[in-house]
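Quiz preparation item.
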């Protein structure tokens, strides 16, 4: 107990200006990877899910490619994907920065996982809804925008935001290719001789401050989308 109190008393001296600057920079990188990876993964996941559900004959090769992509990247650990992209781009002589490689890897994994979540949400919409839209001469895009997606979003959002919260923690592996993110910043401060308990407690707090607003946003959107359904019922 006395050791813990001693460590807590050292907080003002341990976290000086430059140490806080390092943690702040790493937090921005983590947030940037998480937000951009989530946006790109969400857009790619939606496009892939729609493609997999299409029945247009000439899109069959693309559907097969999307199916293989999703099932392949959902079964490969993120670290392996990171190494494949990192060494693959080097073999092609593409001079990409480590953060760009990390973003590509995160986007690939995010697209694969979110695609499966969105595909399940789109499949949950009853067939008679789309058939009614066809009777009313709705085109495919109009049916998707006005009929399918409004009913699918309340089903998609809870697991999608749950995955995105876990997704933030996966960015810690980006340090394996030289990206300065939160976990790597914590290791640097610990290697400088700062107390491990205080350093990683600070890292934990920053991860919480990044992920908790995302959880609140998911809950708010879920209630917002569920409200019209409740009123109509």
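Solution:
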């Amino acid at each position: 107990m006395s050791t813990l109190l001693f460590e807590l008393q050292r907080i003002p001296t341990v976290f000086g200006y430059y140490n806080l600057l390092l943690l702040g920079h790493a937090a921005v990188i983590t947030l940037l990877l998480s937000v951009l990876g989530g946006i790109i993964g969400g857009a790619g996941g939606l496009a892939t899910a729609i493609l997999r559900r299409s029945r247009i004959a000439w899109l069959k090769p693309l559907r097969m490619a999307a199916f293989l992509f999703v099932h392949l990247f959902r079964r490969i650990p993120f670290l392996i994907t990171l190494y494949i992209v990192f060494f693959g781009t080097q073999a092609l002589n593409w001079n990409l920065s480590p953060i760009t490689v990390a973003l590509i890897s995160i986007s690939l994994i995010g697209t694969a996982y979110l695609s499966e979540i969105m595909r399940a949400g789109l499949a949950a919409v009853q067939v008679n809804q789309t058939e009614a839209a066809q009777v009313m001469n709705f085109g495919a895009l109009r049916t998707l925008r006005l009929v399918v997606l409004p009913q699918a979003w309340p089903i998609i959002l809870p697991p999608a935001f749950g995955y995105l919260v876990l997704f933030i923690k996966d960015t810690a592996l980006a340090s394996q290719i030289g990206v300065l993110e939160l976990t790597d910043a914590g290791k640097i401060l610990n290697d400088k001789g700062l107390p491990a308990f205080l350093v990683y407690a600070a890292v934990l707090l920053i991860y919480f401050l990044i992920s908790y607003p995302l959880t609140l946003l998911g809950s708010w959107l879920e209630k917002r989308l569920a409200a019209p359904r409740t009123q109509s019922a």
